[in-house]
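User: Please predict the structure of the protein below. I'd like the answer in structure-token form so I can feed it into my own downstream comparison script.

Assistant: Understood. Taking the following sequence of 277 residues as input:
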Amino acid sequence: MKRLLNHTTLVSLIILFSFIISACRTGRTSSGDDGNQTETLDKARVEQDVREFVYPLPTSFETTEMLNRIGASYILTLSNPVSNVERYLTEKSKAINLGIYSTDLSYASTYNQRQATIDYMNVSKRLIDALNISGAVSPDIIDQIEANQDDKEKLVELITNTFYNTYEHLNRAGRGSVSMLVLAGSWVEALYIATHISEDTYQNKEMVAIVMNQKSSLNKLLSLMEVVKDNPAIDEVMQQLKPIQRVYNSIEDGAITERQLRQITDKVYVVRNQMVE
């Protein structure tokens, strides 16, 4: 499976490009300010091209791994049932729930839930096919995941690359708005799980920190969606997410109150249920 550039690769390419530019500059006489300006513009253009389709948000694995590290239990009923896939007939609902199921896949694999991992990979693959982006994933991805159930590091790599490749494939195909819907679904499901995994979230400082960590991701997501908000599906999702953003923005000095946490919990519950219906 083709793997999208990660941050280490990105840095390496930029350093390599800088070295090439320096070598070229050393091997010729100065051509004045115009030449220097051209080199600067060319370098900026290459750096932009390298970054073009880098996955813009933390993957849902970051949230589920944090939940696992602090000892939060795995609760299957928090995930969107795979049987619900029959409901998703529009491009919007397929894309959003591909994002939701991708988080459920991360959640299951993080907690070594073997059957749930296979089930959520199967249903994700089904939506990938329905969205006509089968080229984004390896044809034998299910077999690879089954074969690596006991190798968590490899399993995380396979699933994460599926996220990256799907995002890249959609954007290269000029379907950036669909990729935004996938991201939105994934973000909502991660926050939904984080806020509903315990009835005493506010009493656990680590749980509160996980919820607070989602603020920057939400702001980034809405900023990305702003570019394609002329798309009615994007605008609808933005309107669903903005009430959650307003609660986050009302938090002063990073000190969330129990009332504010409850507001976030309630609002994400409503949005998530609207998305999976």
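That's the full token string. Residues 7-51 form one domain.
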